[in-house]
Structures are given as structure tokens and as C-alpha cells.
Design brief:
This is Integrase catalytic domain-containing protein. This protein is of the alpha+beta class. The chain has three domains: about 170 residues, Nucleotidyltransferase, domain 5 (2-Layer Sandwich); about 60 residues, Transposase, Mu, C-terminal (SH3 type barrels, Roll); about 80 residues, no CATH class. About 45% of the residues lie in helices and about 15% in strands. The protein has a six-stranded antiparallel β-sheet with strand order 3-6-7-8-5-4, with no helix packed on it. The termini are far apart.
Amino acid sequence: MAENGFAVLDALRHGIQTHGVPAIYYSDNGGGEKNKLLDAEITGILPRFSIHHATGIAGNPQGRGIIERLNKTVGLRIAEQFETYYGKNADPEATRKMLARQLAYSNSNGKQLTVKQQKARRELPTWDELKAVIAEVIHWYNHEHIHRKIGCTPAEKYQRISNPDLMIYLSENELRDIQRPAFIRTTQRGLIEWNKHKYFHLDLLNYQGQEVMVCVDIHDPNWVQVRTKEGSFICNAEFEAHKRNAFPIPFVEQKQQQRAEGMKKRAANKIALAEAELNPVITIEHQPSFELLRTKVKPKEEPTPIFFTRVQKEAWEARKKLMNE
């Protein structure tokens, strides 16, 4: 029912955008035509724009017959434009083969398609192709089709009886409102919930515990428009806007920089150790001497070299100690 309701809602928006706001909207009693999206007292589209919704009366099919006759004329002409048509005037053998291909395609279950299934897929019209054919047939019906009872096209008849001064057209904002189904929700600490999603705005704190009207965009779940039950605008609440990072972003960036510097320092130490292993400090072996037979001369103090690693320093100190013993 929900999908049918949204489809009817979009069709109603298109009709109002093209031809203005009707005083009466006539439909049958189906779920797609009679539902809360259209008829709810506060949130329904029709009450919000003061459009009376008339429905078919049981046992009185005259009004419904007008609509069904239109569907037969227009719907049949649309269906005949596509290879998947299988009405009474279609070739029986061609219809049998086409239905067999479509059945095989529907049973493909994501597997690689056979030649037969590929042909079946090509036979199906795309959404844009379907919309283009519908628009073409509607234009034919309104502007070229001569109606038997009125003796002219529907467009000519409409032009004769309509009064342009009485026509009401909606603004772009009002048309967008038609595309936003509305629901009643109760605010809790700046939050409202719709379709298991939570939306937040600080202005909702002023309406704590109150019922508000939530208008949603069925194609964009990132925000909802919130109004009072009387229709006054409150705010555009954003999806989970109450959730924030545990630490301020600059602090996080600072810690990431510190971690990177630590990794670089540890990597430099590893490189230095590897170089020390490849270039060890060379030690001089002990040689016998006859210093006891001559006057001992005080050795010249060796200057302290520059060390690049701790390993080099420790090796030099060990050698110096050995030489002094």
C-alpha cells in the first residue's frame, strides 16, 4: 500500500503542477487512492490544500466507468507500444514465445544470462522509455483523439469550460510540500524519530514533549522538515545531528601528528643500529713492547671523536679503557 500511495502522491503533484489545484479529486476506494498520506486530517496532502476527496459509491458505477473507459483507451494504446504486450489482438504464437522468454529471465537468479534470457531483458522497457510512451499517449488523447460524446478533443472541451481566473497554481515550495509526506511525532530532548531514524535540532528543545508534524523527503533521508500541527515552520532537523566526536577535531589531529613523529623516530633508531652493525668500530690488537727498558713517555691524549650511535660510543670507550690498562 505504501508504494502505491507514494505513486499516487507523485501523480497528484504532477497533475497539480501542470493544471492547477482541483476542487474535487475523484478516485476509487483502493489502498493506493485512499490512505493517510492523502486523507489524514492534519498531515494528509488533500486536507492541507483544501481538496475534497470523492470516492466511488458501491452500486453506482457510473462515475467509475468514466475512469475505466479512459484506462482502457489510454492503457491499451500504451501497452501495444512494447514487445511484451500480450492482449487479445496479439499473435498467439509470438505471445507464447515471449512469455516463455520472460519466465526464463525471471528464473535467472543472478546467474549468467543465456541468449534467450538476454533477449527477454531487452524486450522489457526501461523506466524512461515507459514514461516517454505514457506522455506521448496522454498528449494524443488530450489533443488528437476526438471524443464521441463531446465531438472534440478533451483539451478543446477543457479550454471552453475552464475559467483561467479561477485556476490556482502552487509555488515551487508548495509543490515540494506535496512530495513530502507528513507524520505526527513527539519531540524528546531535541530529537524526533521517523522510520527508525533519529533527527535532531536545537530548536526542537522549545517543543519538548509536544506533537509536531514531520515532513519527509522519500528520496533524501538525511533531513526532515518539522512544523507545528498548525503548519508553521520550526526547523529542518538533520539525521543524527546530536552525535558528535568524542574529542575536538584539532586535538585528534594533534595526537595523530604526535604518533606519526614517534613512528619516524623509532624508524630512525632502527636505521642507525643497522648501519652500526654494517660498520663496526675497528679495535687495535695489543702488541708487545719494551717500555720497561726505557723511560715511560706519557701518551698523547686521544681526542674524543663524534659518535653517531650509542653502540659506537660504547665500543670506543671499551677500547680506550683497554689501552689505558
